[in-house]
Amino acid sequence: MDMKSIPAQTGNYNLENYEEMYKTFDWEDARKNFTWNETGKVNMAYEAIDKHAENPDKKDQPALVYSAPGREETLTFSDLKRESDKFANVLKKHNIEKGDRVFMFLPRSPEFYAAFLGILKTGAIAGPLFEAFMEQAVRDRLEDSGAKMLITTPELLERVPEKELPDLKQVVLVGGEGSEDYISFEEEMKDASQDFDIEWVDLEDGMLLHYTSGSTGKPKGVYHVHNAMIQHYQTGKWVLDLKESDIYWCTADPGWVTGTSYGIFAPWLNGVTNVVKGGRFSADDWYSLIAEKEISVWYSAPTAFRKLMSAGAEVAKKHDMSSLRHVLSVGEPLNPEVVTWGLKAFDLRIHDTWWMTETGAQLICNFPAMEIRPGSMGKPIPGIEASIVDNEGNELPPNQMGNLAIKEGWPAQMRAIWNNPGKFESYFVNGWYVSGDSAYQDEDGYFWFQGRLDDVINTSGERVGPFEVESKLIEHEAVAEAGVIGKPDPERGEIIKAFIMLNDGYEESEELLEEIRQFVKKGLSAHAAPREMEVKDSIPKTRSGKIMRRLLKSWELGLPTGDTSTLEE
Ligand code: PRX
């Protein structure tokens, strides 16, 4: 049974009166929390870590609680300050300067967080890569960004085509020996000084590059600046409702934007203890972590909630979940069934939040002290204006479907697409940032997600570009042409389905299809490999040669095929 609405929670929340705050709030108010008022300069890593390490009441508070199979470690704010200062010195010693791109291809680990903060302290731009990426995915990102240094492990190094990357000057190995070619993280850290003069930067100086997929072309480098901290801090207060006594867990990997904005910045800017879990998903492990670490605020994704749901209520009942007080979700549509399940499993509402890699921080959200309408993403955070617009950027009336758009100029907004100003400009129409999502707004101001307007696939909350998968597929000797779509799936949201046309001389067989699937998996990543494949005699294309994914999708779903006038003979 789904509910139409769940009443506002009563309690002591950071944002008690949304309507009032929406009317009166100004981002200038939030700026006052940061150092630049005195110096005119700032640094995210200072505000997130050093500031607390300098505070006698906070310095010994756990900042990072790391838990993985075989490794448990806790670092206080002063530990993290020391480790990141040391690593910043290592970077300086190896000539890393402000504005350089330093990439990280590492599993979630204490070293990752120390290195990430160290990069920011030098004024360099951090580029975290998801651990599951394979060679092509790694190459595309390092090449496009012109990364000068990479921090990785000996195992992951095998997927880095170093010789093909002329800009890449240095590789730091975590857990590897130093040599003429490689810098050892451990050896350098042993000797590094604990005193580092942080690089004070301007608000608009670069901080972070996150690569993400669109429907055409290679992944795009979404460029974020230190200014984003204002919004990370403020949404940490209002949306995550963080209090200094909270134990917070964000399940996202820092290779994705949720894992940095809300797995690093928001909790630490708010001085909160941040739990990081390594290892794979297991319902039992997840619940145990909540119980053991006494997690109070938990930010996860619909796919994860659906997996927990299918693990059954008995698994949840084995664990003490009473520490939880606030649960949130992001990345894909949060089904009303999941919200209903959350009420039963934890006796708590799951708060949906909407935003994107490009937006840098949460924009449309359900707040604790607000009525929730299950299925709705909620309302715009104070300080931003959201609307539904047509293709020319004209606002549409309530209940009409259109482009979900945000009035440009919020603090965490991307400032560029790396090396691609044309792509960057294409997001903006008539003063609006146009998201590519379709949605409508009801009479009471709630936003309702409807789908993507382009062919971008969202599988288990991970964004996959069909073009990348198609390009990889046709690299296989058996594949002549390929078209890739997202197919609705009850657990993963969407799965990747590939239609392929085989080259002459190849016969369809289970083994061949599996070989092709593995080829994509080994080249790109597991989440980009098609879960379903179908062999066709031809792949529908427009006369200009574009794959008609929409037509493939209609076939797959048994829907009317619509306008096919541009279809090639
Ligand atoms: O389609 C929307 C979907 O995820 C896209 C953004 O993906 P990404 O840049 O990888 O960022 C994900 C986490 C910030 C959006 O364009 N999406 C994100 N949140 C929601 C969502 N779809 C429905 N409901 C959401 N709450």
TrEMBL record:
Coiled coil: none
Organism superkingdom: Bacteria
SUPFAM superfamilies, per the entry: Acetyl-CoA synthetase-like (SSF56801)
Alphabetized InterPro entries for the sequence: AMP-bd_C, AMP-bd_C_sf, AMP-binding_CS, AMP-dep_synth/lig_dom, ANL_N_sf
UniProt keyword list: Acetylation, ATP-binding, Ligase, Nucleotide-binding
Keyword Ligase: yes
Gene3D superfamilies: 3.30.300.30, N-terminal domain of ligase-like
EC number: 6.2.1.1
Top EC class for this record: ligase
Record has Ligase as a keyword: yes
Record-annotated AMP-dependent synthetase/ligase domain positions: 58-408
Pfam family of the protein (one): AMP-binding_C
AMP-binding enzyme C-terminal domain residues: 468-546
Protein name listed in UniProt: acetate--CoA ligase
